[in-house]
Structure formats: structure tokens, C-alpha cells
Amino acid sequence: MVTTRLPVLRDPPVDHDDVGTWVASLGGPTWIVLSGDDARRCRVVTTLLHGNEPSGVMALHRWLATQPRPRTRLAVLVANVGAALTPPHFTHRSVPGERDLNRCFRPPHAGVSGVLAAAIAEDIQAWAPECVIDMHNTSGNGPSFAVATVRDPFLERLAGQFCDRLIVTDFRLGSLMELPLVVPALAPCPMLTLECGGALQPAAREVAGTVFRRLAEWSDLTALEPHPDLDVLVHPLRVELRPGASIAYAREPQPGVDVTLWARIDEHNRGLTLPDTFLGWLGEEGLACLQACDARGQDHLHELLCERQGRLYPRCPMRLFMATTNVEIARSDCLFYSVPL
After folding, report:
1. Does domain 8-233 have CATH number 3.40.630.10?
2. How far apart are CA 98 and CA 112, in angstroms?
3. First and final C-alpha spacing in the chain
4. Contact criterion met (CB below 8 Å) for 43 and 75
5. Succinylglutamate desuccinylase/Aspartoacylase catalytic domain: which residues (predicted)?
6. Distance CA 87, CA 153 (A)
7. 141 contacts 163 by C-beta, under 8 angstroms
């Protein structure tokens, strides 16, 4: 019997038709564990690290109603229940006033979110999983993609089962997928973040459902076939506001605002973004209110973006992803990531 710090429900029935009511019935962060034909092996999925990214837990709720029987034990974490249930439900990334849970997986594990992150890390060690997939929604609309901290053939094959793009990032932000770099016991465990698409996109729920079904059906993960056209992008740049800069999203420039991004900038999360693509308007400070740093903290803004007559454009062809239209996320996290081509 695996001993965990967080509560465990084993092979639970689905007693509530409404996913919000079901999440509330858990009472807090909970492992949902399905017995497998081979109880010696385990696979782990984490969901709802951000309370406003519910596609994973919605797909889980729907899938559990089918009473699945996986090939191996499957442990699924429903993590940030408090944030998810803060009214209005499924709209808060974190509990107001608390740290972002997915920035707390490196010590020191301060505050409520840090304590929870430490418990999750210990529990994942206890499960000794064959793999971990951490499911999220993108902060803007867009296609699904995966993120890994290392370029690895197995992670490429695993990512290719669910999406067409893998980002290999060297940013270290304290996310769950960084645990193998932090916890020596987890170093052999493949961990992948899967961004399923926008929280309101039905397709995102379908992607999440595919994760549960396939992890339950696969007998041998080492036998996965590679995705022949997987797009692998490495070393993204993180485009952020400089301290004190202001931002808005609109269809026209907003007076007194340093950066007004185009209201539907998240449309550029798909495909190639070319130098003639209009991204938004700049205020009196121009580009000085932005930075585009790599993982070492070096700013590549002027290699990536340029100003033309007060408007913001790419300087070169690029792949743009995680572009948000949420002002709070833009202020507290970043505007978007980009890989110049």
C-alpha cells in the first residue's frame, strides 16, 4: 500500500453529475486512484494546479463515469481545489493572496501553496510512476502543445501522442515538471506538461480525455511510435512587461497605457507569425516597457520585436505561444513566449 500525504480515493464512483459539485465533494487536494491489471506499475496525471484550467478535471469526471479499468494503476491528482471553488468557480488561477502553485515546486516551500507543492512532490515519489503528465489549459485560445525541460526521445514520443508541438524550455520557474531536476529520486521519471488548449475550448477537454484513455490502454510505454511531424522548438524567449509598465487588450490604442495588445492576439498561438503581423500599439516609452529574456536573463527584445510608427511588430518570423488576453496573467506572468526562426 502506497502511503501519501494527501487524501486518496480508490476506484471512486461518480456521485455528482455536475463537475463543480464533484470537485467540492473532494474537500481539498485529492488523489483519485484507479486499480490496474498490473498493480506493480503506476502512471500519474496531475490536474487543476491552476484553478482556472479545468479541462483536465472535467475530462476526468466524464471518464470516471465509464468505470474504466487501466492496464496499470493510474493515480490522478485534483490539486488546487480551493482556487477552483473560489467564486466564480474555475476562474481563479490561485486562491486570492496565495502563490501560484505551479511556481512552488522548488524550495523554499513557503506559504500554503509551498506546503501543498512539497506534499505533491513527496506523493509522486511514493507512487514511483512510469511517467507524469501535468495537464493545463493555455491562458489564451490555441492548439494543444507539450512542454518539457529536456530534449529526450521518450518525451518526444509521449508528447506526440497528444499534440503536434513540443517546447523544450530551459526556464526554471518552480513548475511541477521540473521535479526531476530538483528531487534526485525522481530524476529517472519522465515528466511532461500538456497544455490542452484554452479553458473554454471543447477541443481541450477532448485532448485531456485522450490522455486518460491512452494512459489506461497502453500496455508498454516504451513501445510508443514517434510522431512523424512533431514540431520541436527549443529555448523559447519570455516576453514580459518591465516593472511598472501598464497593459491593455483592445481594438484601438488605449490612452495612457504603455502597451495595448491586439484584442485577439491569442489567434497567433497557431502557425507562423511573420514580420508584417500587427501585434499592438506602444505608448510614449515605446519598446522600453518590454523585455524578451532567455533562461539566463539576457534580453533579446530588439532581436525579436520592433516598433513601426508606434505599432508593435515581430522583427523576424517566429512561433508564438501562450499569448494571453488576460490582463492579470500578463502582469503577473508574461505576455507570451516566442521562438524566433
Report:
1. yes
2. 7
3. 50
4. yes
5. 49-142
6. 42
7. no
Residue whose entry in the numeric block shows the C-alpha cell 521562438: 339
Strand partners, 291: 240
Coil, strand or helix: which one is 243? coil
Domains of the chain, residue spans = 8-233, 236-340
How many CB atoms neighbour CB 60 within 10 A?
Answer: 26
Backbone φ and ψ for 182, nearest 5 degrees, come out as: -110, -40
Region for 48 from its dihedrals, namely left if φ exceeds 0, alpha if ψ lies in -120 to 50, beta otherwise: left
Contact 50, 102 (CB under 8 A): yes
Whose grid coordinates read 486512484?
33
The Cα–Cα gap between 162 and 146 comes to 8
3 state SS of 304: helix
Asked whether 269 and 142 are in contact (CB, 8 A), the reply is yes
* Per-residue CA distances from 134 to 25, 68, 148, 295 (Å): 22, 20, 11, 21
Please give the grid coordinates belonging to residue 124. 509522486
pLDDT digit string (tens) for the chain, length 341 residues: 789 999 999 999 888 889 999 999 999 999 999 999 999 999 999 999 999 999 999 999 999 999 999 999 999 999 999 999 999 999 999 999 999 999 999 999 999 999 999 999 999 999 999 999 999 999 878 899 999 999 999 999 999 999 999 999 999 999 999 999 999 999 999 999 999 999 989 999 999 999 999 999 999 999 999 999 999 999 999 999 999 999 999 999 999 999 999 999 999 998 899 999 999 999 999 999 999 999 999 999 999 999 999 999 999 999 999 999 999 999 989 999 999 99
Q: Indicate the DSSP class of residue 121.
A: H
